[in-house]
Automatic annotation (TrEMBL):
Taxonomic placement: Bacteria, Bacillati, Bacillota, Bacilli, Lactobacillales
Amino acids binding Mg(2+) 1: E70, D88, D91, D210
Domain of life: Bacteria
GO biological process, one term: signal transduction
GO MF annotations, alphabetized: inositol monophosphate 1-phosphatase activity; metal ion binding
Binding-site positions, Mg(2+) 2: I90
The name this protein goes by in its record: Inositol monophosphatase family protein
Annotated source species: Companilactobacillus formosensis
Keywords assigned: Hydrolase, Magnesium, Metal-binding
Signal peptide from the UniProt entry: none
Cofactor(s) the record lists: Mg(2+)
SUPFAM superfamilies referenced in this protein's UniProt entry, alphabetically: Carbohydrate phosphatase
Amino acid sequence: MQVDSREIDHFLVQLLAEVGKGLREDSIKKMSVDTKKNRNDLVTNFDKKTEKFVNGKIKEAYPEATIVSEEGYGDLVKDMSGLVFFVDPIDGTMNFVKRGDNFASMIGVYIDGEPLIGAIIDVMDNEIYHGGKEIGLFINEEPIDDPKNLPLVEGLVDVSAPMALSNKFSVQDVIKKSSGFRVYGSAGIIFGHLLTGKEVMYMSYLAPWDLAAGRVMCEAAGMNVASIDGTPINMLESQVVIVGTQKVVSEALKTLKTR
Ligand code: 2AM
Ligand code: CA
């Protein structure tokens, strides 16, 4: 299949700019909050409304594409053939509800299983991280350089709070070898930090829409995106992933106890 990655990139940037504007303008006044699987698994009217809007725009522009998304307006996608869009309308919903910042909206695009273009908007800062291997990476219009391949001892690491607290896979051993530990509550916000070299690793249990856009861009920036047990990443399932500089991911995989 022939696709124009520059055109898709442009489409994603326009779309996320519109999403960001809408969320900044109406969200606080008209928000209603519900729970999903447990009391800390939140969904708002804006998660749903945004996904419906984004998925509609994707179907209009790319009718042949399939969509994997969080809130139920996507398709039942069984394989990665053709053009697949992954949509997380609001990433970091808890931050959105409780803090009003540090949340993102993300879209990742794959072609026949290969990462193509990713885009993440830090909504309140109005910064859009976007691009891919073919066209390079940008924050809004500004190109970004690949982060340095730092080792664990020289960088800050992000680990999901539940994993760090339960010391899953002895992850605290990895944290102790690093410069320090940070928790932000939004995968999208953290991918921005990785892409700009502010942090060197992120480990979490991520759903396909949490990972898709960040994976495209982190791989394009020369970082490694690995599953904890060395199996290939499955974009149609949730899994524990480690994203980081080549050096850090290899050190982390040696340090973690996976059995
Ligand atoms: P969300 O806000 O889109 O649900 C920290 O909570 C990060 O992990 C957020 O990016 C959040 O995305 C995601 N997350 C929270 N609970 C999750 C779960 N059970 N499975 C996968 N990702 C989750
Ligand atoms: Ca979400």
